[in-house]
Amino acid sequence: MKKLLISAALLPAMMYAGNNAGTDPMDAYLMVYHKDQDHGLHMAVSRDGYTWTALNDDKPVIAGDTIAEQHGIRDPHIFRGPDGSFYLAMTDLHVFGRRDGIRDTEWERDGKKYGWGNNRGLVLMKSNDLINWTRTNLDFSKLPAQPDMDWSEVGCVWAPETVYDEQQGKLMVHFTTRQGVDKNMIYYAYVNDDFNALTSTPQLLAQAPDKAFNIIDSDIIRVGDTYHLFYVSHEKGATPKHASSANLTGPYTFDEHYQDGERQGHEAPNCWRRLGTDTYVVMFDNFRRNPMNFGFVETTDFVNYTPIGYFDDEGAPMKRTNFSEQKHGAVTYITADELSRLEKHWGK
User: Fold this and answer.
1) Residues facing 156 on adjacent strands
2) Which of 13, 54, 276, 311 is at a distance of 20 to 30 A from 169, taking alpha carbons?
3) In sequence order, what are the residues at sequence separation of 6 or more whose Cβ sits closer than 8 angstroms to the Cβ of residue 320?
4) pLDDT of residue 23
5) How far is CA 24 from the centre of its chain?
6) d(CA 59, CA 45)
7) What φ, ψ does residue 115 adopt, rounded to 5°?
8) pLDDT band (50, 70, 90) for residue 248
9) Which residues contact 39 (CB under 8 A, 6 or more apart)?
């Protein structure tokens, strides 16, 4: 079996079942995503995990130009922490800045030197009620240089996800990054409880063998005693992959048999459990579909995966009521009271 190269440092365990903190039962689902049209944060809710309705009639619940240095966000991820708070991590990046009059150049920096979509930071936000948020902007280019990474020359900081390291008792953010136009890898760093500062130096979490190709969009979920890592490999086009380990720190064994049934390039895998069941969903973003859409597969054993189609496909169970062309989504769980509060605030 091939080995995916994982650093020897602690690999965080994402709380399975969305980290159901507290004593209140989880009754519904909350999805976050972004759209190329506005580069803002969008939310959708579902009572059954199959039919989803966007809040605020699919207008941004938080405008990207109010929170991001580049006046736009991408790749939002939401995590319910062990304290019951919600943690949002997002890429600080606007890929159509010139189109929208935000800058005169395609990218903020030289594309030949820093590559496609080059950016330098993340947006981190925390909330206790999903309506009022604190915010910080992290600029990784200001970090001290390390032997394996000169952060002043960071080429990108993309697709952050928050997890909780149970052994360390700390929140951790992992993300895609590279130096200049080098190959993309996955790094991680611990963050403080206020979710507004790093408390450790970023470290390598995963990279392709010999850095032969890009890997991006990491997603980690713990099920029982096994840790499942989903990510996107660019070895032969953009394709989500799976690896697993019995140990928190790895090594992780690459699953050569993982197939989600999609032949087009796709990305941004996000794994979540259907409440009250042993069924897990892997949701992904097919950016080559026209219009772009999310696809879904289900598994109960992380060996056999059953495709269940895309949003609104004929005969498929996954439905949208008032949104489309969503990108890079993530799902967590909410209580009935939290759902009611969100619907009341945004207008049901």
Assistant:
1) 178
2) 276
3) 44, 51, 52, 53, 54, 311, 312
4) 52
5) 25
6) 14
7) 85, -175
8) low
9) 64, 65, 68, 71, 72, 73, 74, 94, 95, 96
**Whole-angstrom distance, CA of residue 202 vs CA of residue 129:** 30
Q: Take residue 319 and report the two structure tokens written for it.
A: 């439905």
Which among 205, 212, 213 is positioned nearest to 188, based on CA atoms? 205
Q: Which residues of 109-121 are buried (b: 16+ CB within 10 A; e: fewer)?
A: eeeeebbebbbbb
Distance CA 26, CA 332 (A): 10
Contacts of 263 (CB under 8 A, 6+ apart): none
User: Is 226 in contact with 302 (CB distance < 8 Å)?
Assistant: yes
3-class SS at 337? helix
Average pLDDT, whole number, for the chain? 91
At 155, which amino acid appears?
G
pLDDT in tens, 116-158: 999 999 999 999 999 999 999 999 999 999 999 999 999 999 9
Task: Look at residue 250 in the predicted model and tell me its pLDDT.
Answer: 66
What's residue 222's pLDDT?
86
In contact, 255 and 241? CB cutoff 8 Å: yes
Two tokens, residue 25? 């039962």
Element (H, E) at 339: helix 336-346
- What does the pLDDT look like over 14-43, one tens digit per residue? 333 344 344 568 999 999 999 999 999 999
CA distance 230 to 272: 12
CA dist., res. 325 & res. 316, Å (int):
17
Q: Is 322 left (phi over 0), alpha (psi -120 to 50) or beta?
A: alpha
The two structure tokens encoding residue 161: 């996800």
